[in-house]
Design a protein that fits this description.
This protein is of the alpha+beta class. The chain is built from 8 helices and 9 strands. The chain has helices at residues 4-22, 43-46, 49-74, 82-85, 152-172, 180-183, 232-235, 241-246; strands spanning 28-32, 35-41, 89-101, 105-115, 122-131, 136-137, 195-198, 208-213, 226-231. The protein has a 6-stranded mixed beta sheet with strand order 1-2-3-4-5-6. The protein is globular, with a radius of gyration of 22 Å. The model is unreliable at 1-8 (pLDDT under 50).
Length: 257
């Protein structure tokens, strides 16, 4: 009797089981006809009850609204061939804690994924900053003496972001990288891009600011995502007393993903 077919079957079953185990289970999931919306929270967020409650409430509203919008958009497909018309559409949103600073400030990366029948899915990044002590979302403004549009701090931050992005773009395309979208970044907090507190080699501190750009934000879709890092030493002249207390150390090597 040959055991090879049995061994092969067992290996296939194990591979399938591992693949299924690797697929995370949505924390929120809504389904319609050919439409699906899902939300995922990472383990760190799930362990923070007030934060999880806040994000769950916001995400329930987003999921319901998005599912309704997908259903409305699909009405325009009724005249297309069935193989195109019946392709499932989906929207996903995931929340990942990227750092915890001073036991208080939680930086969160929000990643959105959407597929609505086009040539490829679309992705986008955003960030949130949760203040555990205040029990609410805040901005990075309290960490700076001023963050006025085109002011000294925002100009310095913008210049550092642009410089870092240009280094990375040249790594990806040595011949003729397109810098137009990078040069177009404005020294304005609400325009420069999603920002988070970068983790640090010093416990409880932040090593600086990280900016997170999805496809199309500072380059073509094919270029993928970009991160720009501004070390805290460049921020030091502009920090408030609150900011001076949370920044120190260096960016961990494994944070540069």
């Amino acid at each position: 009797m040959s055991y090879r077919p049995l061994a092969a079957a067992l290996l296939l079953a194990l591979s399938c089981a591992q693949s299924l185990a690797a697929e995370p289970t949505p924390d929120i999931q809504l389904k319609g006809k050919y439409t699906e919306v899902a939300v995922f929270f990472d383990t760190a967020i799930k362990s923070d009850a007030p934060l999880l409650k806040y994000l769950t409430s916001a995400s329930n509203g987003w999921a319901a609204k998005t599912l309704k919008e997908l259903a409305e958009q699909r009405k325009d497909l009724r005249d297309l061939p069935a193989d195109i018309r019946n392709r499932p559409w989906e929207s996903e949103r995931s929340y990942t804690q990227s750092s915890l600073v001073a036991g208080r400030y939680v930086s969160i990366i929000r990643a959105d994924y959407n597929y609505t029948g086009g040539a490829h899915p679309n992705r986008a990044n955003d960030t949130l900053l949760w203040d555990r002590q205040a029990g609410k979302m805040i901005s990075i403004r309290p960490f700076f003496a001023e963050l006025a549009d085109s002011g000294p701090a925002m100009t310095a931050i913008r210049d550092a972001v642009v410089a870092d992005l240009k280094v990375e773009k040249k790594k990806r395309d040595n011949d003729n990288p397109d810098m137009s979208l990078v040069d177009a970044l404005e020294p304005k907090l609400l325009k420069i891009g999603p920002v988070s507190l970068a983790p640090s080699t010093s416990a409880g501190k932040s090593s600086g600011l990280s900016f997170h750009y999805g496809p199309y934000a500072v380059g073509s879709y094919a270029e993928g995502d970009y991160d720009a890092f501004v070390p805290w030493e460049k921020l030091k002249p502009y920090l408030s007393a609150e900011g001076g207390a949370i920044f120190a150390g260096e960016r961990p090597k494994d944070d540069d993903k």
